[in-house]
Each structure stands twice: as C-alpha cells, then as structure tokens.
C-alpha cells in the first residue's frame, strides 16, 4: 500500500438548474478511485453549493495510482427517482507522483458532461502521500517524468540520452460492445473516456518501467496516440525518448534526489541480464569498408528488382507488378531515402496475421506463388538488412549468408528490440553530428479483431516491422540513428496505414553514455559499427570515410564548425546510397554536402541560415476505387508510392521556387478514405548557408515543334523565374558570398542526367561521375507532357504569396526570426469540405484540396492580421477523410509577433547563430550563465497592445513570482498559495493560462514543469441544429477543451501549457438525425512561467488587486 | 466543393470590435459581410469574400456563445470557457449594454412589459434600428430593472456592481430604471425636443434629492421610489400661492432682486404669478401617481413654454429661479424652508437642463 490519495470537495459554482420547479439544484458529489467511492452530503437548493467535505482518503497501490484517474461525479439528488448526473471531472493524478512536479492539485474544474458540455465548476483539492517502494519487482514507475516537448526541457540538462521507448496497449472499444446497444450515449461515452484514461495511465506506467530499466528518469518527446480501430478495438500506443535529466537549478550537482532512488537501485539489474551484444559488436576494427557490404538499398536489391526499379520511375503502371520494387525509389533527392515497403505489404500483412493462405494479388493472379516466395524472402531480407548492417558485417547479397545472419539475429533478439531512435527534434549542442536525410516507411494492414488484449502481439509486430525498416534505411544512409522520429496511423474501416518517419543521423556518443556509469548505452553504442568506436586518434573527416581504418569521430565536433557540421554527408561519397549531387560545404569548404537536405527535425539552433524560412506544403489527392478487405489494402499499397513520390516532387519544386535548399520538420501524412487517399506534406523551407545555392526550375515541353506551344512554355518559364526572384526578395535570401552559379543564369542547360523523373534510376556507376561537378549547377527540370496540365502544374506550384508582415513555419524555431515579443495567440482551426460529385478526376480533386488548404491559410492570415508583424509557428495541418467526399483539415498553431527592425539587424550582423549557441549551451551545461545570458541578448519590447493578444497579464506575474521558492524544502508548491488562499471564494478570478504548441513562450522563462496533460474528451449532441449546426457544436467543444486544459493546468499551479497539440479530432455527424459526435485528444506540458524581465523576488502582494472585489461582484476593469 | 464546417478557436478569444458592433446592431452575417466589404477591408488585406465570411461567422458564433454570459456580466468575469483579457471583457459588457439614443427615447418611461416588447417592431420601423438590436436593448433594460428593482443601496452602485458597467453607463441605466419605475411620460410631442441626456440628468437629480435614499440609504427601493413623506410635505408649499400677501411679497422680493439683472424683467414681472402658480401646483400634485408621470410635461407647459414664448435667455431663467428660491426664505410666515430647498434645487436644475431648443 504505498500510497494514500486524499481528496477534498470544497464547493461548486455556476451549476445548472436541475429542478425546474424551484430553479435550483440539490447537488452532491461522488468521488471514485479504483473501486472505492465516497459521497458528500447533499447541499440543498443551491447553484453554488459549499460542501467543504472532509478529506476522503484512498489507500491504494502505486500501480493503481498511475493507471487510474480520479473520477468525480456531481449529481442532483432526487428523493423519488434516480439521481441525475450533472457531469464529471476526471483528474489525472500522475503529476503528484513525481516529487519534482506538482505537490497538490487544487482548483476549479469544469464539470463536464458528454452530452451537455461544461456545466458549472467544482473546487477540488487532491494530495498524495507516497511511500517509497524499494521492491524491485514492482510494476509501478512513479517518479519518472514525462515531457511532451521534443527538446530537452528548459530547466533540465540531459546527462544521458538513453534512447527509444515504446509501448502499446489494446482493448475493446466500448462503443462497439454489445452492451452499447442498450445503454445511453452518455454511458457509452463515459465508458470510453474512462477506458482511455485508464489505458493512458497504464501505458505511461509501462513506459516508465522501461525507462527505469534503462537507468533513466524521464521521457522526453513523449507522444501518445489512439487508434480507434472500430470493431477490432482500441489501441493506445506511445513512443518517447528515455533520458536521465538533471535539474539545472541544482548547482550543488547533487545527484538526483530521493525520488529517483528506486531507479538507481534497479539500474544494475537489467544490465546484468542484458544479453551481451559483444558477439557481433566487432569493435572499432570491424571493417566497415568491407566491400561486400553495401549501404545502398537500391544496390542490394537491384538484383531482384532493378528493372522494375527503373520502370517505376518512368512508367508508373509497371509498379503494379507483383515484383514490386522494394526500396528503390529515392527520388532525385540525395537526402530522402524514401521507400515503399507498402508495395509488398499485402504480403506482409498475411505474414503478420500468421495465416497461411496466400493472398491473390489483384493484377496478376498467376504470379501468386512468386509473390508468396518473395514475401518470405522479403521478411528475411528485412531482418537481414537490419541485423546485418547492425553488426557491420557483410549483408547478404545472396541467400547464402542468410542462415548465419538469422542466427545472429535471433541471438540478439532482445537487442533487436532496441531501436536507435529519438523522438527529439532539437538537441543539445554537439549532439547531432550529421543529418543524413529523411527515412520513412509505410505499411498497409488489414485490421482484425484483437483476440487477447493482454498480448497485443499483432500490433507490436506491425510496428516492429516498420521500425526495422526505418532502421535499415538509416543504415543505408550511413547513419546509426534516427532522430525526429514519429509514428502515425490512418484508419478507414478495416484498412490501416501505419507510417513512421524520421531523420537518419549520426550522433555524438558523448551524450548517449555517461562515462562508465551507464554501460547500457555503451553497449548499444559499441554495437554501432565504427562510427562510435571510441577510438584514439583524431581522424580527419575528409579521410574518414575512405580510410579503411575506422577512425574515431571524436575530433569531429572540433573540426567541423557547428553551423554546418550537421549538413555534411554521413555516407560514403564513393558508395552513395543513391545518386546525389555533392559539393564542398559552402561554409567550411572542407567537407561534402548534398545540394538539398530534407529532415524531420527542427532547424538546429546553431545552424547558419541565410534569410528567413517559410512553410512549404505539398498537397495531393488520389481517387481510389471502393473495395473491401484485401483488395482494398492492395489498391492502397499500390497507390502509396506514387503519392509519396509526387508529394516529394511537389516539395522539391516548391522549395526550388522559393530559392531554398533545405527542409526541416518534414511531415508527410497520407490519409485513407473509402474512395480516395489524401496526402499532405508540410515542412519549413530554409536556405542553409552551408549548402550550395539551388538551381532554378526548367520547364520542358514534350512537343517542341509547335511554336505557339513553345511560346506558352517560355511564358511559364518566365513566370517561374519571376516567382523565384520575388521569393528570394521576400525571404531575404541573399547569400553572403554569392557564388558564380547564382549570378549566372539560374537556369542552365537542362541535362538529361538530372531529369527529375529519372535521376534515381541512375546506376551507382554513374554516381562517381557527378562527383565534384559543382561547376555545372543543374536546374531542376519539370517536364510538361500535357498542354492542359500546364496551368494545373503552375497553380499547384505557385501558392498564393504571403501577405506582407506574415511568415509561417511548421517548426519550433522560425529560421531568421529571433526577437519575439511576448504576445502570442494559440489557436485551433478545423475545416471540413464536401467535394461534390463534379470533381471526379484526380486533377479536379487535387485542385479542390489545394484550394482548401490555401483558403485555410488565407483565413488564418486574415484573422491574425492585427498581430502583424508576426509568424505563425508550428503550423501543421492534419488531414482526414471522415466520410465519402469529405475532407477534414485541422491545425493547431501559434502566432507570435516579433520586432521587425531588430530582426533585420540581427540578421545582417549575423549574430544570430552565435546567440543561439550561447543560449543552447546555457540550457545544457552551464547553469551559472542563466541570469546573464538571454535577457541581455533579447529585449522584449512591450506588446503591441492589440486586444486579442495574450498580453502578459497581472495574473501571470502573480502566479509565477515564486521562483525562489523552487526549493523542495517548501512543502507547498509555488503558485499554489494563490489558488489555495481563496479556494472557496466563488468570486476568485480565473487564472490566465497561456498555451502554445512550441516548447517555449517568448519573453518568459519556464521555472518548473508540473507534469504532462493528456486529455481525451467525447462530446455528443442530439440537438445539432439548436447548438448552431456542426460549426457551432465543434466551436463550443474546442473552446470547452481549451477551458478544461487551462483549468487542469491552473489546478496544478501552472500558468502555461507548452508543446500543446491536438492529436486527434474525430468528427462525425448525421444531420438528418440532428446528431453529431466528436472526439478530441490533446496533450502538452503544464509549466510555471515567469516573465524574463521580471526580478525573481517579486513579492506576492499583487494578489488582492488583481482579484475582483468579491462583495461588489467586481468593479468594471478599466 | 462546399464548406461543411469551419471553425477557428483561439486560446485567447479573438474578438473584432467592428464585427461585434455589427452583431450588436443586429445585422445578419450576410449583411455584416457586405458592410465590411464596403469598408475596403478586402483590398487592404488582399483577401477574398469567403475568407471574410468565414471570419464573420466565427465571430458571430463566438458572440452568440458569449451572449448568455453577457446577461450576467459577473459570470463573464468568472467563466472558464473563454479566455478574455479584462479590458476586453469590459469592452464586451460596455458595448453590449450600450443603447441607441433613438431607441431609448422611444422606450423611456414605458412599462418594461411584454406588451411594450411586442411593439418593438414599430419602434424598429420608426427608428431604423434592427428589431434584433431593439430586442437586445429592451431586454437589457428589463434585465437591469429586474435585478436592481428591489435591491438595497444606491441605484447607480447596484447597477454598476451587478452589471460591471462604466460610471456613465451605470448612471444612464439608473435613469432608465427610475423612469420605468415611475413611468414618467417622455413620449409626448411637446417633450420630443428633449434628449435622453436631459432626462438622465433630471433623473439623477430626482434620485439624489427626492427619493427615500436621499434621507436614508439603507432602505429597499431607496432610489427607485420618491419619498412619499416629502411629496406629502410639498402640499404645504401651496401657501406660497394661496396666501395673497405672501405671493405679493414673494413677487416684490424677486423683482427687487432681479431689477436690471435680466433682459426680460417686464415679462417676468407680468408673468410672475402664473409661473409661481405653475411651479407650486406641480409640487402640490406630486402625491398623485398620475401627476408624477406628467412631471416633465408640466414643467414644459407651465414654466418652459411661457418663458420661451417671452424669449427668456437661459441666464434669465437661471437668475429668476435662483432669486425665486432664495426670496422665499425671507418671507415672513413661510415655515417650510427645508422642503422648499429640496424641491426647488431639483426643479431649478431640471428646468435649466431642459431649457433649450
């Protein structure tokens, strides 16, 4: 019994009238945790009841504490009939279980009903007395901190970054159980909410256990998702990065305090059991350069599918061949190793489900045996690729090695489970050495009922496959790790697309191990061939790849300047995984860089950038025939590679059109509907100073004979050239040293070799030829084979220009803007479009979707016009196809204003990177610099004072002025005093809570993390028209979700939510029945902020003045 | 392609004051969009009509959702659904409770009943204010009236505390409540030249000097109902016109005081008895509810019109009323100084306020 949960119900306010006769309510409260329930007295005839209950005490296991939510139900007492429920509050008590987070939860919580929405508020106090349990076999993981933020939290430093943790739990969806036919929608919704809350808790606990096993004390970049698989169940899965974090404010360098003692104890245990991977971690001398081994997937599989490989690129139809090219498509970009395992996924599918009957491929029934065989070989290949590369051995080109490798693979089965993945998107300085490019994998699965919820093997296996895939792609890029890693699903009926993507990277081992303390990560590292051998001499990087001696990387961070190091290619120049155009780095002139770099991470803060960044989106719709089951899955599989390829082409074109050469924060989402697939890729384009200037875009017509046509083509060419130069002006892209290529014609001779559509079909022999050819800068050739398509292409490419004063990006940092002011406006926007039957062609569909996205952007710019000059950050669209002919686009982002003049100054003087570095260092290693650093660099002018901005309000100041009391010595958490001082005062004002999808709020300093917010809500209505139609309904619901998030944060003592995202927004309507239902899942980190300009020791006396005078009901505020 | 659903929700609720005003004025979304378009907003921000429409819709929805809270402004301050900075909240409330001059002149002094509400379409037609806006304004009047009607304490303060209005607006509402309660006639043709501000000023004078609250500030209805005792005492003033000697004496004192000081001395001298009778009769009749309602008509008919007919300047009126009030003190046998002062100070300021074209 290691925990005692104490709950006190103080008061209620703004309750709804439950008794029509008296216009009043006889309210009482049920407090339920696990299987114990307490009740308060009935407070008769009041809409503002004062229960002032005793402390209800629950004695519970810490396992339950982690899993179960506290459930508070407010009811209306009725003498003669059943008591009516007013609503419920679920409180996640997890933040109380970690001594570094909140110590008490206390505040006004909105009482929520799934049918009626928010119905008044209730004031609740919750405390937990936790006894340390030293039982090493325990199932709980109290004390592990969770962060949604994908960077190391601001007031911590990463001692060790352990790596990837994942877990998933499954259950039946209450909505689809038989009982749902007889119970009320409310009961069903509540059952679902409760179940998901329970599953989240369990998931978090299990992840926590894994973290403790790894010797960590925190999960950063924690991403939890729900897969509503309908009939087949409900999956809750999460990924994250296990870390050992140290609080910066503890200058005493004291090792982690009491709360972590369990983890320390456990630390030794797993290592002893850890299967020693040394069997094939062949040490530093492992000959990586063994010529038998090829990094390049295209090479290794060339035997099987080289022909289709080439064909695919040119004529899509051949791709339908069951011989499906595996990892062949590396479209034109040297940096995107994107491939399409999906092609063969129908086969994977049948493997995964363990059935023995073979699928009949849709196109060639006769090929079926071949397919079957191939699928087997594929799975072996896959494992092979992973394990083989992992061991630095020679990955088999032929089956002869298979056995050996398979044996190795089984030996290291446990170890195989570990993936060198990191969900982080920004890193401590020096952590990221090279970024190789984007790696992604997709797979189409048919959902089947989950038979045994306790062993979700199928789903685990599915993800395992995908991750192996990713891992092998990273290897192919010469990288041993994947950063900015994320996973997602799209489900339509029984078909599910699983996607994973990340950025292949080479990381600095220094951060992955903690001296000899953490042998775990050391083991893992030594597995990585050569790159991480902690060898001796300082190898020159130039020779590193060529040298047979796998020299160490240790010197790297010294030799390559941080502003360009990450751009340098990690793969072997002579043995590239795909054809690429390499040049010497424009920054250091010493090492090779690709001409374009795509990544899923944030722009490293130390990177040298020219000009500003901008949001780039590629949008695509593809029609699909309605089909069932396997046929449907196959059809989708067949479409996927083309979609991905086309999205990629669009991205590339748009990037060139903006005169930029790198993409950050790339997310490609492909959503499946009954009769179409929708693809949306978002990224932030930027001109990396280190990379060569991009060439232009060349339009090539198919029929050069026609003069009028030629004329037309040249007009378009002119338009494109104009756009490029206009964009360069807009984004201030004026490279410091203008190389001759740029000055000269931006459109050099088209060369067959670099044809967009063909570049990847080059054999590797040719690759060496293009080396060092930086003199002849290639233009990107866009081939127009259809006169009608010309306008379409043009309209697709040339997005509407940004209104003056606006910038947008989908990453955390906007390249080129540093001097934010403190006004921010977070928002969520959702749109659903109905495509009327007229647009039956792919082209028409594309145009519709494109317009939809453009209009949404336009609307945002208009709405936020009063914030100019401003940048919309973290602008990520989520697309879904909820029904036939419906497309839903949702986005949660933040608009932040900045000071225009200063930004240019900083840019000109090029101090930005320097500043960034110092900032970064500060948060990493040198706590003593905290005070001197950032305030001196950034001055935050007062906000522009337009009413709709989140001006720093007195409440903010007041709530957070307790910085000095951070010490654990004080039992009361900072910020709580305020709430507690007036817990029962019905007139206390509502705390202002800022929200942002970013991990920071400009002008403010995070002084404490209070735990993660992870909330799931369902709202349903049977009076849709009366609630203002679908828009009115959803508008209210989103506002309610915000309100509940804010209330929970305030109750934890916080005043802001960072890294806030809306992970799920499932909207269903039936206008004929006047009904609608919506599910929303949100998450973020609750924090306490103080304004940066503020003195730390501001007294708290502002209290009285900001709260309204209670007796008079509050005087009007000036 | 059609938009099925389109919402935008900010953590801090975005509210455009211009759109808010259009909403308050009762325009439909379509009307609001075309009005906004006429302002040149499309060109200014290089945007399109559907963007404007979507924006307007979002705002309208937000306002509709806030409306229920605006009915109880103290709830708006403590609600959790919308995060609105305090100064914005104040703006929302202030604008919501603001009313149109034309409208209030139609309704002022009328019973705030269902019957009046039914006639609002006439008011709407007459004033050009949309029916929706008329209804909002009427409901505001009625709501404020209901809440403060039976409350203890000063009327203005009650309005201010319960509806969080600015000082000025709270005073206006106090006047409206006061007028509605006593049902003062304000709609007669002769009163048409008076503005709401005139009436609000007079109401303020009446509240401060003639109500129960003027003597005791902890009584229910203290500022709404006139002090019955005082009204009763006013009958005693009749002596000023019924006692021939006193009337003459009063006249001579006033004439002495004003000789050479006003331009209309002769007219004043000739009309003194009529004016005095008028003033005193108003006082004496105030015990009748019916006559209370006609208070302003009487002032106009008995005092203002005769003076205007003789082309008195406002300075003449002021001098006369001052002299008239002060002289009564010197009258032998006039024992009702307190009542007289209390009566005349209000009469004087009201008449002066109302003495314009």
Automatic annotation (TrEMBL), chain B:
GO terms for cellular component: nucleus. It comes from the Eukaryota. GO terms for molecular function: fibroblast growth factor binding. PANTHER family: ACIDIC FIBROBLAST GROWTH FACTOR INTRACELLULAR BINDING PROTEIN (PTHR13223), ACIDIC FIBROBLAST GROWTH FACTOR INTRACELLULAR-BINDING PROTEIN (PTHR13223:SF2). InterPro entries: FIBP (IPR008614). GO terms for biological process: platelet aggregation. It comes from Erpetoichthys calabaricus. This is Fibroblast growth factor (acidic) intracellular binding protein b.
């Amino acid at each position: 019994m290691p925990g005692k949960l104490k709950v006190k119900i103080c008061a209620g306010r703004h309750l709804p009238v439950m008794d029509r006769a008296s216009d009043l309510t006889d309210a009482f409260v049920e407090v339920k945790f696990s299987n114990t329930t307490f009740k308060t007295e009935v407070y008769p005839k009041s809409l503002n009841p004062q229960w002032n209950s005793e402390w209800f005490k629950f004695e519970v296991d810490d396992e339950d504490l982690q899993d179960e939510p506290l459930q508070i139900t407010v009811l209306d007492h009725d003498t003669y009939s059943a008591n009516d429920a007013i609503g419920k509050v679920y409180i996640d008590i997890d933040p109380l279980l970690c001594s570094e987070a909140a110590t008490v939860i206390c505040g006004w919580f909105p009482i929520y009903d799934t049918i009626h929405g928010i119905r008044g508020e209730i004031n609740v106090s919750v405390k937990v007395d936790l006894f340390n349990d030293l039982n090493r076999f325990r199932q709980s993981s109290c004390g592990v901190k969770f962060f949604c933020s994908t960077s190391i939290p601001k007031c911590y430093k990463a001692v060790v970054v352990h790596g990837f943790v994942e877990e998933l739990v499954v259950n039946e969806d209450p909505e689809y159980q038989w009982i749902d036919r007889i119970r009320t929608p409310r009961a069903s919704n509540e059952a679902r909410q409760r179940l998901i809350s329970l599953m989240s808790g369990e998931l978090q606990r299990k992840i926590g256990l894994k973290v403790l096993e790894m010797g960590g004390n925190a999960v950063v970049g924690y991403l939890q998702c729900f897969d509503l698989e309908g009939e087949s169940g409900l999956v809750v899965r999460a990924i994250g990065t296990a870390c050992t974090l140290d609080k910066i404010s503890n200058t005493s360098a004291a090792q982690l305090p009491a709360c972590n003692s369990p983890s320390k104890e456990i630390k030794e245990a797993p290592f002893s059991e850890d299967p020693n991977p040394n069997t094939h971690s062949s040490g530093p001398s492992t000959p990586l350069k063994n010529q038998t081994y090829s990094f390049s997937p295209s090479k290794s599989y060339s035997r099987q599918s080289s022909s289709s490989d080439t064909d695919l690129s040119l004529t899509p139809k051949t791709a339908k061949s069951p011989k499906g090219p595996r990892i062949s498509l590396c479209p034109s970009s040297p940096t995107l190793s994107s491939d399409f395992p999906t092609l063969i996924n129908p086969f994977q599918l049948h493997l995964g489900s363990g059935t023995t009957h073979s699928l009949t491929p849709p196109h060639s029934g006769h090929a079926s045996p071949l397919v079957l065989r191939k699928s087997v070989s594929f799975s072996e290949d896959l494992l092979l690729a992973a394990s083989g590369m992992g061991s630095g051995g020679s990955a088999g080109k032929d089956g002869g090695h298979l056995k050996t490798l398979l044996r190795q693979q089984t030996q290291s089965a446990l170890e195989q489970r570990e993936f060198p993945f990191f969900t982080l998107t920004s890193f401590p300085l020096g952590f990221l050495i090279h970024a190789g490019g984007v790696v992604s994998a997709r797979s189409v699965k048919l959902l089947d009922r989950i038979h045994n919820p306790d062993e979700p093997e199928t789903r685990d296996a599915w993800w395992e496959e995908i991750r192996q895939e990713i891992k092998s792609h990273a290897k192919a890029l010469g990288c041993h790790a994947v950063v900015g890693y994320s996973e997602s699903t799209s489900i339509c009926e029984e078909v599910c697309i699983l996607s994973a993507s990340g950025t292949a990277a080479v990381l600095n081992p220094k951060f992955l191990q903690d001296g000899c303390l953490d042998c775990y990560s050391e083991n893992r590292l030594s597995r990585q061939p050569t790159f991480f051998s902690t060898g001796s001499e300082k190898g020159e990087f130039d020779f590193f790849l060529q040298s047979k001696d796998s020299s160490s990387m240790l010197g790297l961070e010294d030799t390559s300047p941080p502003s360009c190091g990450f751009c340098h290619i990690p793969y072997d120049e002579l043995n590239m995984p795909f054809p690429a155009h390499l040049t010497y780095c424009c920054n250091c002139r010493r090492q090779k860089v690709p001409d374009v770099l795509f990544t899923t991470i944030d722009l490293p803060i130390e990177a040298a950038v020219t000009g500003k960044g901008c949001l780039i989106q590629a949008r695509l719709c593809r029609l699909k025939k309605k089909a069932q089951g396997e046929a449907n899955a196959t059809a989708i599989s067949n479409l996927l590679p083309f979609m991905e390829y086309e999205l990629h082409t669009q991205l590339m074109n748009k990037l060139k059109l903006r005169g930029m050469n790198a993409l950050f924060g790339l997310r490609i989402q492909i959503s499946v509907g009954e009769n179409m697939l929708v693809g949306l890729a978002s990224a932030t384009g930027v001109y990396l100073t280190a990379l060569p200037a991009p060439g232009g875009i060349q339009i090539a017509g198919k029929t050069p004979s026609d003069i009028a046509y030629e004329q037309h083509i040249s007009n378009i060419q002119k338009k494109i050239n104009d756009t490029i130069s206009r964009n360069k002006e807009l984004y201030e892209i004026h490279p410091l040293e203008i190389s001759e290529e740029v000055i000269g014609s931006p459109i050099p001779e088209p060369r067959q070799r670099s044809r967009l559509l063909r570049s990847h079909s080059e054999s590797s022999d040719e690759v060496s030829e293009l080396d060092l050819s930086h003199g002849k800068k290639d233009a990107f050739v866009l081939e127009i084979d259809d006169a009608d398509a010309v306008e379409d292409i043009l309209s697709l490419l040339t997005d509407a220009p940004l209104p003056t004063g606006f910038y947008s990006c989908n990453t955390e940092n906007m390249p080129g803007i540093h001097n934010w002011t403190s006004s921010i406006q977070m928002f969520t926007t959702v749109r659903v479009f109905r495509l009327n039957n007229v647009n039956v062609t792919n082209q028409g569909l594309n145009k519709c979707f494109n317009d939809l996205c453009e209009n949404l952007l336009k609307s945002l710019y208009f709405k936020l016009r009063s914030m100019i000059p401003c940048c919309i950050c973290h602008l990520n669209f989520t697309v879904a196809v909820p029904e036939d002919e419906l497309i839903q686009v949702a986005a949660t982002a933040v608009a932040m204003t900045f000071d225009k003049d200063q930004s240019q100054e900083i840019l000109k003087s090029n101090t930005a990177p320097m500043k960034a570095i110092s900032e970064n260092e500060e948060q990493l290693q040198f706590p003593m610099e905290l005070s001197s650093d950032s305030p001196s660099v950034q001055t935050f002018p007062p906000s522009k004072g337009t009413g709709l901005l989140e001006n720093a309000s007195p409440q903010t100041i007041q709530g957070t002025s307790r910085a000095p009391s951070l010490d654990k010595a004080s039992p009361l958490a900072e910020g709580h005093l305020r709430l507690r001082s007036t817990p029962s005062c019905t007139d206390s004002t509502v705390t202002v809570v800022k929200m942002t999808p970013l991990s920071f709020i400009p002008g403010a300093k995070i002084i404490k993390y209070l735990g993660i917010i992870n909330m799931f809500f369902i709202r349903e209505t049977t009076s849709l028209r009366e609630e203002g139609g679908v828009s009115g309904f959803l508008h209210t619901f989103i506002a309610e979700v915000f309100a509940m998030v804010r209330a929970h944060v305030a109750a934890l003592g916080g005043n802001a939510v960072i890294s806030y995202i809306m992970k799920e927004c499932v909207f269903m309507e039936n206008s004929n029945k006047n009904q609608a239902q919506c599910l929303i899942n949100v998450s973020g980190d609750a924090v306490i902020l103080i304004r940066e300009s503020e003195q730390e020791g501001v007294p708290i006396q502002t209290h009285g003045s900001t709260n309204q005078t209670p007796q008079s009901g509050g005087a009007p505020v000036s | 392609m059609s938009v099925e659903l389109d919402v935008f929700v900010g953590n801090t609720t975005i509210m455009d004051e211009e759109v808010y005003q259009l909403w308050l004025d009762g325009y439909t979304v379509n009307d609001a969009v075309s009005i906004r378009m006429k302002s040149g907003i499309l060109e200014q921000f290089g945007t399109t009509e559907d963007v404007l429409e979507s924006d307007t819709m979002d705002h309208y929805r937000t306002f509709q959702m806030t409306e229920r809270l605006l009915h109880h402004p103290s709830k708006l301050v403590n609600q959790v659904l919308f995060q609105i900075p305090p100064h914005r909240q104040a703006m929302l409330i202030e604008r919501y409770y603001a009313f149109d001059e034309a409208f209030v002149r139609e309704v002022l002094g009328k019973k705030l009943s269902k019957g009046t509400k039914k006639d609002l379409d006439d008011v709407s037609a007459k004033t050009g204010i949309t029916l929706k806006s008329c209804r909002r304004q009427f409901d505001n009047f009625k709501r404020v009236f209901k809440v403060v009607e039976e409350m203890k304490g000063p009327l203005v303060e009650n309005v201010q505390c319960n509806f969080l209005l600015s000082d000025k607006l709270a005073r206006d509402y106090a006047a409206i409540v006061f007028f509605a309660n006593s049902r003062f006639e304000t709609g007669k043709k002769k009163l048409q030249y008076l503005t709401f501000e005139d009436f609000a000023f007079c109401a303020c004078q009446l509240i401060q000097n003639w109500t129960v609250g003027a003597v005791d500030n902890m009584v229910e209805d203290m500022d709404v109902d006139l002090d019955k005792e005082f009204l009763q005492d006013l009958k005693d003033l009749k002596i000023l016109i019924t006692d021939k000697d006193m009337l003459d004496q009063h006249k001579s004192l006033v004439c002495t005081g004003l000789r050479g000081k006003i331009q209309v001395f002769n007219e004043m001298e000739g009309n003194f008895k009529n004016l005095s009778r008028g003033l005193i009769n108003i006082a004496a009749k105030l015990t009748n509810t019916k006559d209370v309602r006609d208070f302003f008509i009487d002032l106009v008919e008995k005092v203002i019109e005769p003076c205007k007919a003789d082309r008195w300047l406002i300075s003449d009126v002021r001098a006369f009323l001052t002299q008239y009030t002060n002289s009564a003190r010197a009258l032998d046998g006039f024992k009702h100084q307190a009542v007289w002062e209390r009566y005349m100070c209000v009469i004087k300021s009201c008449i002066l306020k109302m003495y314009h074209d």
